[in-house]
Design a protein that fits this description.
With 529 residues, the chain is of the alpha/beta class. Helix 7 packs parallel to helix 8. Bound molecules: alpha-D-glucopyranose (GLC).
């Protein structure tokens, strides 16, 4: 019965999430920055891709010190992107196409221009002082402890007027909120209600594992494995600044609230948590069956792993093995923070990676532009915008190169905007764009659509069980099975042909032409029935 199947496999298990970075999807008003009306205009493209849900990076009022991850008002839309009416139109248009819409909830920090912080920093006895994390200097006048910002430098900023430091895990313009304060917590839960009442289908929760700090803020221990090639943040193990038990308790409260909405409205709402932790600690963000936390703690291991069959096989096996029985897996291959997959492994392997992402057991998150295999985008120094780059320029970890505008067609500015876009386009945009790839049956876009269509047609690929099987060196092989239908994936992770016995009917290959029995071509992934 469909109803039963729906309960056993709700949309967020069967479906695919598509991340839209609103600044770079589609501009509608000619300011070179994408906006909500632009996204609405492109919804048919998103629906035709065959994804199930959209996650929007932040669109709230923001001074844009961290491009929206510095929120100055949690319950409004930045004029750059539109207004609440434009948001409501987008949400209705998404729902009309059967697409769910998830917002980005940024609970760890607000903007330093948020009225809450303006009040908090106005005096030591302001009622909102304790909504943020203020401390006296250390005896030597320096910062209260040794914590390092994730973007580099001390995590503490001195406030001259009130003679204390405030904590910021990211930029000084992103003061950390104090979730131990009941009034702050109540205000933030109201933020979730505000958007749930408007009808959103859930949230991606920004840096969820950061949101509570150890009570008395002890120094973090040094990381013995740190080298200067790593970020400054990695000098320390974030033992006391992240992954605290109280953050898990909050995560369970977020879940209870969203579940309550789901039960009341008959429409399940979903929580995705941004979590960067080793497997054993990662698993805890699912919570327990009695007290669940987030539905999907983001799993970034495809982004972080070396790109070869042996490593990926191990990573996949370990990840699936550590999941609690009630925990549903998920996979992320790209984001506005990570280097583009095609830049990292090349276009031929990016096609294999897309097949992997869309055939592994677990909910995939697909990042805008990866369906076009956008690769390396050089950002000339005068066009660099990412604050993370400016805090540690020597590391070359700027994120602008993954945030460049969607190239829609070969018209000026790639159909993204009538003006010069805020970041440069991919240099090959005249040929690497949506319109060109729609005309080319061999394009990455065509492959992505075919994979998404096959995934929809074959429940084995979405909700089926999964088993890793032995394959020749360089080949990652696994099977998915549902109700007796068994499919085998064989992915050649190398750029040389590999002798590989395979049986069955090829349903799809990452390469043009028909796969030939007995071997896999260079960079070839196949799905066999
Ligand atoms: C998350 C976001 C990233 C942002 C950071 C601080 O990691 O994905 O873009 O800079 O949080 O909010």
């Amino acid at each position: 019965m469909a109803g039963n199947d729906d309960q056993a496999h709700p949309w967020w298990r069967r479906g695919v999430v598509y991340q839209i970075y609103p600044r770079s999807f589609q501009d509608s008003d000619g300011d070179g920055v994408g906006d909500l009306a632009g996204i609405e205009r492109r919804l048919d493209y998103v629906a035709a891709l065959g994804v199930d849900a959209i996650w929007l990076s932040p669109v709230f009022p923001s001074p844009m010190a961290d491009f929206g991850y510095d929120v100055a008002d949690y319950c409004a839309i930045d004029p750059l992107f539109g207004d609440l009416a434009a948001f409501d139109r987008l949400l209705a248009a998404a729902h009309a196409r059967g697409l769910r819409l998830l917002l980005d909830f940024v609970p760890n920090h607000s903007s330093d221009r948020h009225p809450w912080f303006l009040e908090s920093r106005s005096s030591r006895d302001n009622p909102k002082r304790d909504w943020y994390i203020w401390r006296d200097p250390a005896p030597d006048g320096g910062p209260p402890n040794n914590w390092i910002s994730d973007f580099g430098g001390s995590a503490w900023e001195w406030d001259e007027r009130t003679g204390q430091y405030y904590l910021h895990a990211f930029l000084p313009q992103q003061p950390d909120l104090n979730w131990r304060n009941p009034a702050l917590k109540a205000a933030m839960l109201d933020v979730l209600r505000f958007w749930l009442d408007r009808g959103v289908d859930g949230f991606r929760i920004d840096v969820l594992w950061h949101i509570v700090k150890a009570q008395d803020l002890p120094d973090n221990p040094p990381n013995p494995h740190w080298t200067p090639a790593r970020t400054e943040r990695d000098r320390l193990i974030q033992a006391h600044s992240t992954d605290q038990p109280e953050a898990h308790a909050l995560s369970a409260e977020f879940r209870a609230l969203t579940d309550e909405y789901g039960a009341r409205t008959g429409r399940e709402r979903v929580l995705i948590g941004e979590i960067f932790l080793p497997n054993d600690r990662h698993a805890r963000w699912y919570g327990t069956p009695e007290r669940p936390q987030v539905h999907l703690p983001f799993n970034f291991q495809l982004i972080e792993s070396e790109w070869n069959a042996a490593t990926l096989r191990q990573v996949i096996a370990d990840y699936l093995a550590m999941l609690p029985a009630h925990g549903w897996p998920n996979w992320v291959l790209g984001s506005h923070d990570a280097p583009r997959i095609a830049a990292r492994v090349g276009e031929a392997q990016a096609r294999v990676a897309m097949m992997l992402l869309l055939t592994l057991r677990g909910t995939p998150t697909l990042y805008q532009g990866d369906e076009l295999a956008i690769g390396a985008v050089p950002i000339p120094p005068h066009r660099i915008r990412d604050p993370q780059h400016f805090r540690q320029p020597h590391l070359n970890i700027g994120r602008d190169r993954s945030r460049t505008p969607m190239p829609w067609d070969a018209s000026p500015h790639a159909g993204f905007s009538s003006a010069e876009p805020w970041l440069p386009l991919n240099p090959d945009w005249p040929t690497r764009n949506v319109a060109a790839q729609e005309r080319d049956p061999g394009s990455m876009l065509a492959l992505t659509r075919a994979l998404l269509a096959l995934r929809r047609a074959e429940p084995a690929l979405s909700v089926g069980g999964m088993e890793l099987v032995d394959g020749p060196a360089g080949v990652l092989a696994y099977e998915r099975e549902h109700n007796g239908r068994r499919l085998r994936m064989m992915l050649n992770l190398t750029s040389a042909p590999v002798v590989a016995e395979w049986r069955g009917t090829p349903l799809l290959s990452t390469r043009a032409g028909t796969p030939e029995a007995g071997w896999l071509r260079a960079d070839e992934g196949v799905i066999l029935a």
